[in-house]
């Protein structure tokens, strides 16, 4: 008989052994000590059978920006099962307990990096953010108009203090960005090979930065964050100064970044990568904090959530607020006469801004009549999603 419980510090060595086996890496003692600092802040759920850890999942405490507001988010990571215990529903049980615990702690959202998207869709997580990868050949490293500012190199010790204000100002323009702590910057953003530079304008304001690695004649730009077009040009011109060192440059950026349009030759390789999944843990709490655009009239959302049944309800949204109507069985034999029907996956992607209502309506993920879809279009603010961290 197995039992799911919170793991403690005395279980960490077992946790490390399972992680090393499942994800095929080896941790040094120094790396373990750093991880222990972070694990002490996590909820680590373990499936224990006959005294042995058979499966686990880590719940990481984060804060994210959604429409300029801060929301508590639980990141699901390190999900692993020993092979001899796989395909016995252990991960499903862990995720069920995880969602219940998140709800008890008042967390509205959960994010995860999927090994397989469809696996986590079964449990209510859905894609919510993609990134764009630009690949630029050396021959296209052509300077743009010069700027009046300058690029300065930043020491690793100064990165959190100097770069975080720029990062946060940029991420507040998007939905989903992580609120970074100094610990996160030091141990999970910066790598040993990473260089950091900041763009300083004519007024001595820091308005952009770049994190990048140089290896084997490849300039790999992990983050290129610019608050102004001038900063974007200044950082691009800095990249071009590496034309004698780099055969190619890759840049990870947001899907709406228009940098390619500014280049002398915009026909570079641009690839869109669906990157991370999200799930609304407590839909009532999230909707009551959501910044709906004020519109006349009332809209009903019939939401179905098989894995977290407390979310299955009818949500009445109007200028006066959100009312919730629950019944024992919200899955009707016949479609409701009023309102829109959707599952929690679609609700998550929709409310976070990954796609607009009419897109989901055309895909058959949002059901109802077009007038009500149009009403929902007017009620939802617009903001692109973007997430660049990994956990």
TrEMBL record:
Gene Ontology MF annotations: aminoglycoside N-acetyltransferase activity
GO BP, sorted A to Z: aminoglycoside antibiotic catabolic process
Keywords noted in UniProt: Transferase
Gene3D superfamilies on file: 3.40.630.30, SCP2 sterol-binding domain
Occurrences of domain N-acetyltransferase (ranges): 2-148
Name of the molecule in the record: Putative acetyltransferase
């Amino acid at each position: 008989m197995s039992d799911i419980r919170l793991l403690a510090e005395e279980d960490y060595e077992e946790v490390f052994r399972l992680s090393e086996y499942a994800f095929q890496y080896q941790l040094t003692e120094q790396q373990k000590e750093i991880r222990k600092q972070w694990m002490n802040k996590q909820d680590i759920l373990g499936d224990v059978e006959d005294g042995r850890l058979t499966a686990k999942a880590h719940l990481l405490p984060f804060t994210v920006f959604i429409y300029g507001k801060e929301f508590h988010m639980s990141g699901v990571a390190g999900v692993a099962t020993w092979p001899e215990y796989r395909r016995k529903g252990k991960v499903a049980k862990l995720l069920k307990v995880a969602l219940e615990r998140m709800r008890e702690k008042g967390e509205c959202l959960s994010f995860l990096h999927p090994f397989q998207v469809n696996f986590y869709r079964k449990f209510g997580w859905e894609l919510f953010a993609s990134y764009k990868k630009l690949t630029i050949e050396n021959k296209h490293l052509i300077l743009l108009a010069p700027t009046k500012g300058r690029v300065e190199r930043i020491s690793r010790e100064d990165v959190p203090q100097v770069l975080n204000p720029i990062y946060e100002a940029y991420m507040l323009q998007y939905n989903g960005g992580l609120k970074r702590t100094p610990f996160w910057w030091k141990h999970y953003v910066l790598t040993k090979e990473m260089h950091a530079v900041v763009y300083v304008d004519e007024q001595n304001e820091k308005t952009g930065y770049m994190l990048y690695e140089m290896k084997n004649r490849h300039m790999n730009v992990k983050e290129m964050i610019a608050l102004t077009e001038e900063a974007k040009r200044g950082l691009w011109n800095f990249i071009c100064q590496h034309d004698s060192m780099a055969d190619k440059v890759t840049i990870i950026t947001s899907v709406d970044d228009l940098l390619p349009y500014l280049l002398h030759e915009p026909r570079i390789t641009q690839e869109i990568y669906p990157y991370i999944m999200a799930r609304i843990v407590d839909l009532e709490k999230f909707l009551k904090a959501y910044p709906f655009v004020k519109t006349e009239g009332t809209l009903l959302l019939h939401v179905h959530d098989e894995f977290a049944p407390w979310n299955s309800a009818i949500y009445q949204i109007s200028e006066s607020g959100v009312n919730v109507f629950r019944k024992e069985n919200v899955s009707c034999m016949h479609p409701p006469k009023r309102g829109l029907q959707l599952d929690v996956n679609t609700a998550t992607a929709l409310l976070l801004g990954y796609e607009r209502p009419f897109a989901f309506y055309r895909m058959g993920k949002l059901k109802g009549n077009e007038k009500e879809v149009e009403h929902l279009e007017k009620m939802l603010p617009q903001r692109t999603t973007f997430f660049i961290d990994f956990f």
